[in-house]
């Protein structure tokens, strides 16, 4: 991006954050930017990059850099912005991610909501105490009357896989 005179600093979450942290080596299709909203110039540059990659035979969608999770910023525990940690610093790109308790909450929420994030949750290797600390927040994230029971069952199943009794 520096060739284009652009720079970007963001907080990222999801699988790409775990890869940058060295917690997993799995492939991911996108980079989920929590904040800030992508400036038009950055979104356009990311789209151009995707087109170049496709010409080289790589599969990369135009929206690989996206604000899909931006609404999570409104529901994360208070003060999350003060707990971010830098995970990548390049010439024109600086990426941070949520502090561990907040990042864990987002991955557990995704596990409960989508059911597809088990391996990422295992890679984070939460302790029984961390799982128990996340439960009250997770139980509030959906208004469905069955949601709290679903959350407890999902977290209990993860705990068993990690060797914890929850």
Task: Tell me briefly what this model is.
By secondary structure, the protein is α/β, with parallel strands linked by helices. It has 7 helices and 5 strands; from the N terminus they run E-H-E-H-E-H-E-E-H-H-H-H. The chain has 2 domains: 2-98, no CATH class; 101-161, no CATH class.
> Main beta sheet: strand number and arrangement?
5 strands, mixed
Distance between the termini: 46 Å
Q: Structurally, how many domains make up the residues?
A: 2
Order of helices and strands: EHEHEHEEHHHH
Provide a count of the helices: 7
Q: Name the overall outline.
A: elongated
> What percent of residues adopt helix (DSSP H or I)?
40-55%
Unreliable stretches (pLDDT < 50, length at least 5) are none
Number of strands: 5
Mean pLDDT: 94
Our Rg estimate from Cα atoms comes to 17 Å
Proportion of strand residues: 5-15%
Strand line-up in the sheet with most strands: 3-2-1-5-4
Descriptive notes:
- The protein contains seven helices and five strands, in the order βαβαβαββαααα.
- It has 166 residues and is α/β, with parallel strands linked by helices.
- It has a five-stranded mixed sheet.
- The protein has two domains: 2-98, no CATH class; 101-161, no CATH class.
- Helix 4 (100-114) crosses helix 7 and helix 6 runs antiparallel to helix 7.
- It has helices at residues 15-20, 40-55, 72-75, 100-114, 118-124, 128-139, 147-161, and strands spanning 8-13, 31-35, 65-66, 85-89, 93-97.
What is the topology?
Blueprint: E1 8-13, H1 15-20, E2 31-35, H2 40-55, E3 65-66, H3 72-75, E4 85-89, E5 93-97, H4 100-114, H5 118-124, H6 128-139, H7 147-161
Parallel strand pairs: 1-5, 2-3
Antiparallel strand pairs: 1-2, 4-5
Helix pairs in contact: 4-5, 4-6, 4-7, 6-7
């Amino acid at each position: 991006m520096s060739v284009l005179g652009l720079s970007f600093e963001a907080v990222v979450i999801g699988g790409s954050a775990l890869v940058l942290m060295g917690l997993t080596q799995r492939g991911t299709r996108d980079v989920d930017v929590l904040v800030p909203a992508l400036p038009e110039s950055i979104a356009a540059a990311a789209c151009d990059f995707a087109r170049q990659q496709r010409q080289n035979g790589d599969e990369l969608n135009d929206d690989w850099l996206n604000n899909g999770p931006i609404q999570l910023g409104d529901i994360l525990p208070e003060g999350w912005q003060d707990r971010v940690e830098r995970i990548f610093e390049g010439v024109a790109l600086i990426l941070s991610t949520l502090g561990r308790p907040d990042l864990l909450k987002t991955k557990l929420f995704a596990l409960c909501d989508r059911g597809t994030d088990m391996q990422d949750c295992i890679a984070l290797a939460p302790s029984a105490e961390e799982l128990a600390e996340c439960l009250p927040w997770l139980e509030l994230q959906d208004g469905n009357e069955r949601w709290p029971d679903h959350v407890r069952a999902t977290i209990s199943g993860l705990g068993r896989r990690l060797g914890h009794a929850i």
